[in-house]
Design brief:
- The chain has two domains: 30 residues; 222 residues, paralog of FGE (formylglycine-generating enzyme) (Alpha-Beta Complex).
- The protein has five helices and ten strands, in the order αβββββααααβββββ.
- The strands form three sheets. Strands 1-2-5-10 form a four-stranded antiparallel β-sheet, with no helix packed on it.
- The protein is an alpha+beta fold.
- The relative contact order is 0.19.
Length: 258
């Protein structure tokens, strides 16, 4: 009789452990375990990528930012439901040459960012390395890295531009943001996946927003080495997708690495 009671208690204890474990698994199911800022190389292009976990942030004009344009308003809460990997720096000329077999840039150097690429060039590169161009919301969420100010640090400390660098500088020369991303501001304007619409934010969904389904212009973010004080994480510019200029570049994102 005593052994039966011991056995019954053991069974009940096991059931309790399994129930608790199942509950914990259910609560964490689908949640990333990779910490923000974790880096990993993409073997397709040899560049480092950074893990950005899902989360919520205030997209658009930063509090107390008096330089905002109308297309940065209204500021609104956005939820990114899926984590993603994003290039730690803009795509370099060495990486572009490796993947595409050409270098369209005006300024040459392996560690310089590739430029004079149009939107289709950028999108095609990302596909070749099993990635894609970031949505505006993904780009701004990654750039802010948990901050709410117009910039994620002191301008001269985080941004390479004409007053403190060459024409243009190599990637990764300034301080990264809190999630270890370099040059989210400065060096080159960066293509995003989204079409541009001036009043899009007033109708933008609050979960994983993507830009309008069509348009005439694509959105770029981040500023360039030609810009200084106007480089802010919420600043939006637009250009024709076929445009090839020496101050436009890009970085890629993806839910997984090859």
């Amino acid at each position: 009789m005593g052994s039966f009671r011991v056995h019954a208690i053991a069974v009940l204890w096991l059931l309790l452990v399994l129930t608790v474990a199942s509950s914990c698994w259910a609560q964490t199911k689908g949640q990333p375990t990779t910490p923000a800022g974790t880096t990993k190389m993409n073997p397709k292009d040899g560049l480092m990528y950074v893990w950005i976990p899902p989360g919520k942030f205030q997209m658009g004009c930063s509090p107390w930012d008096s330089d905002c344009d109308n297309d940065e308003k209204p500021a609104h809460t956005v939820t990114i439901t899926k984590g993603f990997w994003i290039g730690q720096t803009p795509v370099t000329q060495a990486a572009y040459q490796r993947v595409i077999g050409a270098n369209p840039s005006k300024f040459h150097g392996d560690r310089l960012p590739v430029e004079r690429v149009n939107w289709d060039d950028a999108a095609a590169y990302c596909v070749r390395v099993d990635m894609r161009l970031p949505a505006e919301a993904e780009w701004e969420y990654a750039a802010r890295a948990g901050t709410t100010t117009a910039r994620y640090g002191d301008l001269d400390a985080i941004m390479s531009y004409h007053k403190n660098s060459g024409d243009p500088p190599e990637v990764g020369q300034k301080q990264p943001n809190a999630w270890k991303l370099y040059d989210m501001l400065g060096i080159l304007w960066q293509w995003t996946a989204d079409w541009y619409a001036e009043k899009y934010y007033s109708q933008s969904p609050d979960q994983d927003p993507r830009g309008p389904s069509s348009g005439s212009y694509r959105v770029l973010r981040g500023g360039s080495w030609l810009n200084g004080s106007d480089a802010r994480v919420s600043f939006r510019v637009r250009n024709l997708p076929g445009s090839r200029v020496y101050y436009d570049g890009f970085r890629c994102v993806g839910e997984a690495l090859p």
